[in-house]
Amino acid sequence: MTESDAKTFLFEKNPKPLAASEREALLENPGFGRVFTDHMVTIRYSEGRGWQDGRIEARRAFDLDPATVVFHYAQEIFEGMKAYRLPDGGAALFRPDANARRFRNSALRLAMAPLPEEMFVESVRELVRVDRDWIPTADGAALYLRPFMISTEVLLGVKPSSDYIYCVIASSVGSYFKGGAPAVTLWVSENYTRAAPGGTGEAKCGGNYAASLAAQAEATREGCEQVIFLDAVERRYVEELGGMNVFFVFDDGSLQTPPLTGTILPGITRDSLITLARDLGLTVREEPYAIDRWEADAKSGRLTEAFACGTAAVVTPIGKVKGRKYNFTIGSGGAGQVTGKLKAALLDIQNGRAPDPHGWVDRLF
Ligand code: PLP
Ligand code: COI
């Protein structure tokens, strides 16, 4: 099978899909990342033969040798995207081409075989079509797609693997934060950083998340929902949260978000919100913002709102910031007006309730 052939997936229907009544019960309150659909996509790569054996089949466990590279050296990347229900019962992906491009960039950074972008998009589209009954209809719910790639060579030598499995699984999801969290409290990590210049910060690799967990656990112990990471060089500039980008809103109506200098994940939600904010006539700066400045601006009232954004989190207001040296509230501590407006503008496009002037919506059926 050549690269272009792999776009056509061999389809073997799950002989034992979950009963409709059980599926409906799960979709009522799916939470995040616990409810999985009946099928998965796999495509295999091996040096010399390229990408081959694309298939959609019953979701099942992998059978891997204990010496498989991914278990030892974490050569793994992933993506996160959603399929949204449209008002007429159809469904759409949001900017899947952007996820495909980021997946390719992540692969190159981790010295993995890049998957052709068209193959990535087609694999996700096909899985959503096959598992369409798993797309929840409740407001704010969606089918979360998790494409990922692991190295599968059996070898303890440290080198890029010669073999890979690319896989897509799907999970029916509601809100990422428990109870829909009207506003989250962040913990400023002083003990840990997420990414250093020259590291893997802008790649979506599992290792970045493994490295963030001790900081996230510290945040949880302190009663905070997410950790906020500062830059690794000066330990001064706000970079991003464990799994979200961050925006600041000022009293003159302008917005600011940290620039993409290689240490933060180039979020597709971040990019979309910059465009939507400018469409609304707002000024957006991509400039560094120091944590002490954030505290001073929050206290003086110059900063009126702040929010986290990402596929899983959508747009979530930041109410409070805590840390060993910090304890301040942003605005009223709840959802602000600009945040609400941007969230609505984004969700309206994603859910097909508003026109799509930028061609972001990829209708599947
Ligand atoms: N930053 C990190 C560390 C993330 O894990 C995510 C989520 O994917 C984001 C930012 C936001 O990216 P996106 O908007 O593409 O989902
Ligand atoms: C996403 O938003 O897709 C992510 O990968 C973030 C993660 C915290 C679930």
Can you walk through the features of this model?
The strands form 2 sheets. Strands 1, 2, 3, 4, 5, 6, 7, 8 and 18 form a 9-stranded mixed sheet that branches. The protein folds into 2 domains: 3-174, D-amino Acid Aminotransferase, Chain A, domain 1; 179-350, D-amino Acid Aminotransferase, subunit A, domain 2 (D-amino Acid Aminotransferase, Chain A, domain 2), CATH 3.20.10.10. The longest helix is centred in the middle third of the chain and has 16 residues, at 206-221. A hairpin with a 3-residue loop joins β2 (39-46) and β3. Residues 1-5 have low confidence and may be disordered. The chain has helices at residues 20-28, 69-73, 96-109, 117-130, 206-221, 268-279, 291-300, 337-350; strands at residues 10-11, 39-46, 50-58, 76-78, 81-85, 91-94, 142-151, 163-173, 184-188, 226-230, 238-241, 245-250, 255-257, 284-286, 303-310, 314-322, 327-329, 361-363. It contains 8 helices and 18 strands. The protein is globular, with a radius of gyration of 21 Å. The chain has 365 residues and is of the alpha+beta class. Helix content is 26%, strand content 28%.
Summarize the structure in short.
This protein is an alpha+beta fold.
Which stretches are low in confidence, meaning pLDDT under 50 for 5 or more residues running? Answer: 1-5
Radius of gyration: 21 Å
Give a quick account of the main beta sheet: strands, pairing sense, barrel closure: 9 strands, mixed
**Helix content, binned percent:** 25-40%
Looking at this protein, list some descriptive labels.
365 residues, alpha+beta, D-amino Acid Aminotransferase, Chain A, domain 1, D-amino Acid Aminotransferase, Chain A, domain 2, 2 domains, 9-stranded mixed β-sheet, 8 helices, 18 strands, 26% helix, 28% strand, binds pyridoxal-5'-phosphate, binds 2-OXO-4-methylpentanoic acid
